[in-house]
Amino acid sequence: MAEAHQAVNFMPSLTSDRGEVELSGPVWQEIYLSGLRSWKRHLLRFWNDFLTGVFPATPLSWLFLFSAIQLAWFLQLDPSLGLMEKIKELLPDWGGQHHRLRGVLAAALFASCLWGALIFTLHVALRLLLSYHGWLLEPHEAMSSTTKTWLALVRIFSGRHPVLFSYQRSLPRQPVPSVQDTVRKVLLEPGIGWGVGGGRGRDSVFSALPHQYLESVRPVLSDEDFDWTTGLAQEFLKLQASLLQWYLWLKSWWASNYVSDWWEEFVYLRSRNSLMVNSNYYMMDFLYVTPTPLQAARAGNAVHALLLYRRRLNRQEIPPNLLMGMRPLCSAQYEKIFNTTRVPGVQKDYIRHLQDSRHVAVFHRGRFFRVGTHSPNGLLSPRALEQQFQRILDDPSPACPHEEHLAALTAAPRGMWAQVRKSLKTQAAQALEAVEGAAFFVSLVAEPAGLTREDPAASLDAYAHALLVGRGHDRWFDKSFTLIVFSNGKLGLSVEHSWADCPISGHMWEFTLATECFQLGYSADGHCKGRPDPTLPQPQRLQWDLPEQVHLSISLALRGAETLSSNVDCHVFPFSHFGKSFIKRCHLSPDSFIQMALQLAHFRDRGQFCLTYESAMTRLFLEGRTETVRSCSREACDFVRAMEDQEKTDPQCLALFRVAVEKHQALLKAAMCGQGVDRHLFALYIVSRFLHVQSPFLAQVHSEQWPLSTSQIPVQQTQLFDVHNYPDYVSSGGGFGPADDHGYGVSYIFMGDDMITFHISSKKSSTKTDSHRLGQHIEDALLDVASLFQAGQRLKRRRRGPGDEDSGHRRGFISTKTVDSKAPRTSTPADPFQ
């Protein structure tokens, strides 16, 4: 039946609203080109996989080894100690005239075996070397002799010219911490919990979003409650811990990673909540510049740049990420950036990833289109893509009934969307496949966005809100990411979280912005460079045959999406008083500096300490994702209390601040080395559920709330941007929704050396939070902390208690900038690569 239905829908797929699509060229030529493209793609993938498998060796090393064996054989030496003679005996006897050929084959087989053994040895040696993490715990200026020796050996064994996946076979597996150590840390250090991760700070499947525990909750627990919780931890260690730990140890030897697959399944795919706000985050465009005001042109260049990134990804031309230039990180998450959709299920979702896709799905004014990205000659040029997007913008046809709000279903609870999708798969299979099988989703928004001169603060807040939630029905939240292009040429990205963490999409976004602006560029009139292609067929309008029972579901989904959207309070502000360079001059970690300032700001905002989450990556290990850094430590609380105590002097506060920063650094490095407690306890909890083992301690961890969720957006490819000559051409980061109904979500990015942009979110329905109020407290806290240092004495010191009114002293963040209320109609800015 399904095959018959597809056959019936075949003819409409070859038509558009403007008539039949013309197919030019001989059929044999198209068949030949299709086969050629397919074989080239498979051969390229096979060759890349082969190079990755033999790394750090190269095919030339096999040729060198074979030549050496042949030379030794010619000199009547036998490096194989008789093995080649035995190999020759096993080969078929082709007669005397082929005796020399048998010798060559024997030498080739022996060289291949020896080469494989050497490669295996190199992999094992490199894996052992990469298991050493002492270098991370040492200051750069005081590197030990052990670390220096390790570094030299890593450089020797790492080979030359690695590609993206070269180190995958050599990465160590994430260790399972000792359960005794984990519980000891629970009792002695900042608490435990799981719930947020992956560079954005909120991704728990559990509605309670469990958070840091025991010592980290000590400031908010009475002595009685704390003693009771400590007793639960000790009981767990005595009764259940050993059994659960044994299963985790067994899994760590059998699976690539003992926690990541469960994290993806139970935290993301089994969540039944809406993806909007709960499992998506956004990335912003340049803050102060817009390269062109033409919506179609910006979309053409951006889509072309994204597809160039995909091509580099397929060819493994992207170099692997190296932490501090020497330690490779896991690249597994890059595999699902493109051609990926999270498909809803009644009980759990699953991730569908295609090897290739030659079109994008486009949404504009309630209508869906399929836009091809390739011609017989390869990838469409930016100008050709602009032409296709302009045709969509100029198309006057209205949306069909209920089609306009159809995408709101992807923002509905997952169980509801799974049921409705079954009807769509039957009635509108071709249109649904065009969207879910696209390389990614493109939303052409009819309204402008971005920073404006008239009201800079409100315009930035509206920009963030539009990227995070939009109108609730103008993006397909199931897609791995949606490219959002506003009517004034501003860009943005909305990313679904389950397939990967923020640094992966951030890496792609950096490449996209740099490529579309500096390499592809725009002509003097704002269009993409090049010429249109009038032979291209019209974009295909997707037709949705929506059954009656779906109409009510769409209305309910839209109402829920609008309610959720209207409840999100977003606030974005660039902090321009100082930046990363000032913090480094103080000989401090920029991230730790910000985290301690956030503790001070939140205490002033709420008058109490709270469980705080900061995400840390565990990509030092194979298939690693994230771990929790519990920033609200006892040391941080001591510093905050001192700052609010008028009797404490600046030197006293500074001393406590340095202690708090050192503690935060220790927690961060332990998390990155696989010695955190949150993912370990999460995995123990999952095992207990499988075994039906009741643990009051794990249940208590599972039930905690997480009022403050934080994350830093890393800038990974500084070579793509010239922040000194072109300081405005830097992404302004992104943000995410709050992890708790009465909490905050805070992300930040260091824009160059002298600016930090903060993205804050909360719920309007909460009487305890206010994103703008916290933003003011963050600015005050940063100035107060900076004034503790001699270099920051010029910054005005403000000590304001919780509940104090804003003084309005925040400096205007466009005073020294030129803000485009209308984007410039000039040619491409000078290329910083020149």
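That was protein one. Protein two is written in the same sequence-then-structure order:
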Amino acid sequence: MASTYSSTVPLTIIDLRQSLTHDAKRQKIHQDDYPSPPHCVGADITTAASDVDVVPLDIILENPEAAWDSADSDSHDDMTDVSSPTDEVHLLDEHRHLHHRDSTSSSSSGSSNNINMELESTGTAIEEPSSSEGFDLPKMILSSLKPVVEGAPKAIPTMVLYDDYGLQLFDQITYLQEYYLTQEEIEILERDADKIVDHIPDNSVVVELGAGSLRKTVLLLNALERKRKNIRYFALDLMLDELTKSLKSLGQFANVKTAGLWGTYDQGMAFVSSFGSEVPKTLLWLGSSLGNYTREEAKDFLASYRKSLNVGDNWIIGIDRRNDAQEITIAYNDPKGVTRDFVMNGLDHINVLLGQDFIDRQKFRYFAQYNVEVGRHEAYYQVKEAHELVYTAPSTGEEIRIALAQDELINVEYSYKWSPQESTQLFEDTEMTKVGQWTSSSNRYDLHLVQKTPFYFKTPVADEPLPSQDEWTELWKSWDLVTMTMIQHPTMLLEKPIALRHPFLFYLGHIPTFLDIQLSKALKEPFTEPSHFSVIFERGIDPDVEDPTQCHSHSEVPDSWPEVECIIAFRDRVRERLFKILNDPVSYPMTRRLSRIVFMAFEHEAMHLETIIYMLAQSPNTAPPPSIPAPWAVRKSAADDTFSSGEPLSPSTVSPATWFSINPAQLDKDIISLGHNDLESDDLTDAHKKDLTTAFGWDNEHPFVTSRPLPSTFEIQSRQVTNDEFLGYLKAVGVTNKTLQGNEKTPASWLIQDGDEVFVKSVYGPVPLEVSGVWPVSCSNIQATGYAAWLSTQQGAIYTLPTEHELSIAFKLRQATVPKTGLETYGFRQWYPTLDHQSLSTASSSSNSSHFSGPGGLWDWTSTTFAPLDKEGFKTSTLYPGYSTDFFDEKHMVVLGGSWATHPRIAERRSFRNWYQANYPFVFAGFRLVRRA
């Protein structure tokens, strides 16, 4: 816990309102542009208390260590020179950002309630007691009460609620039982703070937007202190007095350094962007402050702040759900009347701000309602009787008259609520990858942890089978990140970490060559130069595991591969060719056949991206993904790309898998069916050649099969078997740690070090079982079958791998009954396999509390040999003849689902069928069991 605050140690407040003299790109901001509220007047850099240093930002930029008292300079990272800011920084219009009660703070952000900033309709120049070019609350009050458009609803800025007395009243509100938001957030933080801060790297900067009382924040700071992470914490707020009091209440920490930021959200955004890319950052936005904004405003705000973040930076956001209407209503209108007094006090504050008796609060009442359809709580001042407001300009005596009608509603606050689906869509729209979610026990409130990632795979739209240019761009970002940074040039290019496959260099040429060949064949155009790439890069090898001399036909393997620079230049020319085709509908009208080729090339590249990833996991030379630290690792220093495990790790644990009972006879046809209808030859018929909405599939997914006999009722494990569980099996059958090395039962995903210590291979290097024990085990089909046979003997029941039909039914059932959360364990949401414990509730479930994890983490092995779904209906692809038929050899087994490195277009298409040789041990494939009578 933090110690008692010592007044002998000065507290630093950085004044963001001062002009950023080093930055020509930012508008100059004067201190007078942001007048302090009445209780803060006079609190400036010259009159601050002796135990508080209010320092202009320019001084901090010149000397970052000035922000920290008794700081160890070795534990801090320098800011970049602000003369070279991130070009993406975009300062929003300050007038849009007012305060909102749910933020539990006195910051300056929130919805403007559609306030109009000018009184053009009156033709009158308004003189206020405190006017400026910037943040001008008095002018905003008058403008919002007299909208430009006559008859438009009147409003009052939410900011008026937060004077000294208002802040005291709001603090009382947060302790009310009815105001559940604060209590729910505290519950989450008390329970899960340690898990949350695991995602905050050592030597991070943590900036809290609208800090408020810090009653909840201290729970996170204490967790960071327990983890002994060196953190620089900045509390951002607009109210200097409250900011000072709150920071003093924290006390001092041994590892966490605290300071204040005096300014607005937008100034805070500029401050955040001033840190260099090597400094990891986490934003805190607690108290459901997102409710300040409309749906579109929230999206714009997150997108704007995202530009200030670097890849790998986090944002922890509290969001109140669309809960029971009565619960929300009473949360904002408590029986004791504290909320009523809080809102009505805003009218008294208006008179102080305007310097005259402008409003008589006795002529208004507090009116509140929850708008279920819109999903927001609405707070108003309701006019008791018709009357007129009169404002007199102090210097001229000119009057502004505002007529109010009886029962008229004047909005002062909106609080938007978000369903889980709306939150998920918000993060999808703003391309923020959700890496964690913690929910209160009542399921009313969530803390989301989202991250800016180097690329973002959006959920495909069902009726848009043609990948968009944006999708291609993101796929190329991922491909380039892996092939140009994780594969270290030139030393790794000819490396073959899996002897059965080509060296890495081959795939750099294979991907653009495949696309180029398909385009040239369809369009009857020449190959992109150098044209001989079509000879050496067209098709790779996939030899028989037991006899590598046996292999399907493949491209000629040259005596020496082309230079990588030549391959990259070729890649870029092919990419330009594709975009030229997509952008010229006159020369290249988009038919179903051309669209299919683009689809095939897209999924082909996505599948080979995963191939390279599982090859990289086998290499000891792989560089970890840049700027994406592993949650279990501690960054040694902000300037160091290496990681260490930090303090000793506690053994990982996971709850036993539950069993989910499914009776296929009770399910809809769409769920019990297999495949889908997409006959390649139909592309050229008049009825289909212009069809750009029907989903594509590979030849082995056709036809749509509904007549196959249904499986009997079966029980399937809720999740995949873990590394810990698999190790337990090996020990039970007599394989000791000493004999794991080289044992055929030992997964190729394991690395045995120091004779007997088990690690799991990853793109971050070997990961100890203390962390990876709860990950699903990646192994061959034969190894998975051995586990099932052992468990059958142990428990006297019949355990097997699921058939393709059974696993397909289970996955389709989950997809039909469980909404997406953004935490699906595929599509590079994280860079390692994890278990997914999403609920699946259905009438056929043996228990309403059963859990069934969906696709992701690892692919799922089945017991089904890879073959056509229906021999009569199967037609070999003419565009890619050997795609499936070369592997109908009785040696390849069907795998379904997807891994953490699988693109959503593949992982979310339930008809997609993957396959590998039963004894191939390197792929990202695990297993779950079926229990039979």
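The mean pLDDT is 85. Keep this in mind for the problem set.
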